[in-house]
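Our preliminary data section would be incomplete without showing what the modeling component actually yields. Below, a chain of 275 amino acids is followed by its predicted structure, encoded as tokens that our downstream tools consume directly.
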Amino acid sequence: MRAEVTSALGRYLLTVADDELILGYRDSEWTGIAPLVEEDVAFSSLAQDEIGHARLYYMLAADLLESDADHLALGRGPDDYYHASVLETRTTPKYDASGAHRGGGDWARAVARRFLYDLFDDLRTEALVSSSYAPLAGAVQKIRREEQYHLRHGAAWWRALASAEGEARERLEGALLALWPGLLGLFEDAPGEDILVAEGLLSRRTSDLRDAWLERVQDHCAAVGIRFPAERTAAGWSIAVSPEAGGRQGRHGPAWAELYDEMTMVRRLEPEAVW
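Predicted structure:
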């Protein structure tokens, strides 16, 4: 594999791994405070799966970039993470040192973000299964088996919240609109994807997945009577808002600084430690 191809594939894998790690970390914050005991278990399991998937991608990237998976996961600077920014925001309640509630906490937003991300990730992994890079194709086959449970879980909660009366449905509708620009940012291409497609390492660019995702989300909205924030026209999809781009280039919002400090705190205390 030529050096530029190796570098592009390693960089792309960091993008995928970062998505999985950051969403897994944020979802893990619901452990112990989810609305149902069963969801304490289920959401924790989903978060664990995502972090496990991230580890597989980091290991693949480490082989290509001559690095270490733990360093790639927790040792890079804050500007060197390439996840979509929609994944980094907190959805759990905030409390101060005394235990007093200081706002936040939106289960519907957590459900909507996870489900709509999983619909995107299903399309992404579907495209990766046919990669000519055998280690990646093999890893993704395993990941896709686990992700089918994620999709079923998300679809069940999507229907439950949408069919509820009053606030639950309103919160789901509000979450979809609030998340929409960030969700569109999922489809920002990583640098070098054109090279990877030309070499057969990717079957499609990330941006090429958008229309299929829009169709899936539209179907799920129509099934429960939620207004879909885009319209299909003869010329293609009409979307009134601009994507929240920049995450794939390492540009993130204010929530990222707090999350990065928390997530990497132990490793930064003893960066040379062997665990």
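The beta strands are 93-95, 101-104, 231-233, 236-238. Residues 3-269 form a domain with the Ferritin fold (CATH 1.20.1260.10). Preliminary results of this kind motivate Aim 1 of the renewal.
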